[in-house]
Write a structure and sequence with these properties.
single chain; FAD/NAD(P)-binding domain; 7-stranded mixed beta sheet; globular; binds flavin-adenine dinucleotide
């Protein structure tokens, strides 16, 4: 049975950043990942064969110079020079069957009052529709802002908490405002996974966790692992399921967090077949898709790539193909051999009041060697995940130092454990 100071379940950016912090502190770290690739939602599909070298994003597509925790990790790994600015092409709306410039869809008379409506308005406790709808006006919200926010978070934004959508953060001016990397944002995950001392075992689905004496025992399809501290960096639904038998009181508040599913389809098309202007993406209004993310931000000499994020359950495969051809204006049908790739994405569907739930979860974790990180605490952006991992690692470090002050490694004194299910 392999043993470690910290075992992390999930090799998305939350788990990888947690591993980076722990390994940098000298802990022995093991990550278990169910897929045969790392990155989770950082998923850059890299084509082979005739499209060798071309990639497109099936998940996250951009990081920003306000992502200070992420940038600090990249800096410590001497990787800042690998960042590439995204080409400055704009977003457009796809509405009423056509591609439209955003300003043509706005009511400027309604917008004029926005600065006054903002006065004294508090974000916390309000949904995106309540808060931003009030500021920009109901017509602008329905025509532009609602669809745009939904495109950003890949789910209907209306009921999402306003304070979990955009968090103001200081920017690092020497870093490109919006960036990606050669090979796409999955490269970020690969860089962090390369941190010295981080071990990742792929193809390891965790099915059960238990605490026995001073150790957690983690079971996968192919064997057991033991660890002094355990971190779950899995999507919230998986985390809930894994915690439920052994840590029911922590699982309980998590059960209330719903999951939004997105049916993602990426397609690579020869440039010569398209007349669509260069775009960063299209925002769908009253369409079966929430957004289309384009590769035009990283131009390629021969191909253009588009990733459609479809609302779940609306279209079958043929319907999606028709929709893609219609939106991209590809003459004739898309050939069946089209370079098309599918993925099911999942994100937490946060609701107003989630901040208090997250605080309650932190209260339950306090004093234990069980850590939770992910995109269901303060927000879903990559930076929210890394910041959460930083915070959880600091807590774990404090817990272990408290029981064994001179030597963090090897301490054996018991910490507070959760009540076992009767
Ligand atoms: C379509 C889309 C676009 C986005 N765009 C952006 C963007 O442009 N910028 C931005 O900042 N954010 C964006 N986000 C949000 C951001 O990418 C995610 O919130 C973040 O990457 C989540 O990271 P995570 O590590 O918490 O979870 P995940 O990436 O979901 O990773 C969890 C990992 O756990 C693994 N796992 C699950 N179950 C098990 C198990 N039983 N055993 C072992 N391993 C398991 C999974 O395989 C996965 O690798 C986007 C998200 C999506 C879906």
């Amino acid at each position: 049975m392999a043993d470690s100071d910290l075992l992390i379940i999930g090799a998305g950016i939350s788990g990888l950043s947690m591993a980076h912090y722990a390994a940098a502190a000298g802990w022995s770290v093991q990550i278990l990942e169910k897929e045969h690739r790392i990155g989770g939602c950082l998923h850059s599909h890299r084509f082979t064969g005739s499209l060798d070298g071309f990639w497109l994003e099936l998940g996250a597509h951009s990081a920003f110079n306000s992502y200070s925790h992420l940038l600090a990790i990249l800096e410590s790994l001497h990787a800042l020079e690998r960042l590439r600015p995204r080409a400055k092409v704009g977003f457009r709306l796809f509405a009423d069957g056509a591609v439209r410039r955003i300003p043509t869809q706005l009511s400027f008379s309604e917008l004029l009052l926005a600065p006054f409506r903002l006065l004294g308005l508090i974000k916390t406790g309000r949904s995106v529709a309540e808060y931003y709808g009030h500021i920009v006006g109901p017509r602008n919200y329905a025509a532009v802002f609602g669809p745009a926010f939904s495109a950003v978070i890949c789910q209907s934004a209306d009921e999402f908490p306003a304070d979990a959508l955009f968090n103001p953060r200081p920017r690092r001016k020497e870093v490109p405002r919006g960036f990606t990397l050669p090979g796409g944002v999955q490269t970020l995950a690969e860089i962090v996974a390369g941190s010295s001392g981080v071990r990742v075992a792929l193809g390891q689905t965790v099915t059960d966790i238990q605490h026995q004496g001073e150790r957690f025992v983690v079971r996968t399809d192919s064997g057991d692992y033991t660890t002094r501290a355990l971190c779950l960096a899995t999507p919230v639904a998986v985390t809930t399921q894994l915690l439920r038998p052994e840590f029911p009181e922590v699982a309980e508040p998590l059960m209330e967090v719903k999951t939004a599913t997105v049916e993602t389809v990426g397609v690579a098309i020869p440039k010569s077949r398209l007349t669509l202007p260069l775009v960063a993406g299209l925002i769908g209004r009253n369409e079966p898709f929430l957004s289309v993310v384009s590769r035009d931000t990283v131009p390629d000499p021969s191909y253009r790539g588009f990733t459609f994020h479809f609302r779940p359950g609306r279209l079958d495969e043929a319907g999606k193909r028709d929709c893609i051809a219609r939106v991209l204006g590809v003459p004739g049908d898309l050939p069946a051999s089209m370079n098309m790739i599918e993925k099911l994405n999942q994100l937490p569907a946060l609701r107003v009041g989630h901040g208090e739930r997250a605080q309650a979860i932190d209260g339950l974790l306090a004093g234990s060697r069980l850590a939770l990180t992910g995109n269901y605490f303060t927000g879903i952006a990559i930076e929210d995940c890394v910041a959460r991992s930083r915070q959880e690692f600091a807590r774990l470090q404090h817990e272990l130092e408290r029981i064994c002050p001179p030597c963090v490694k090897g301490g054996t004194q018991n910490l507070r454990w959760f009540k076992k299910k009767a």
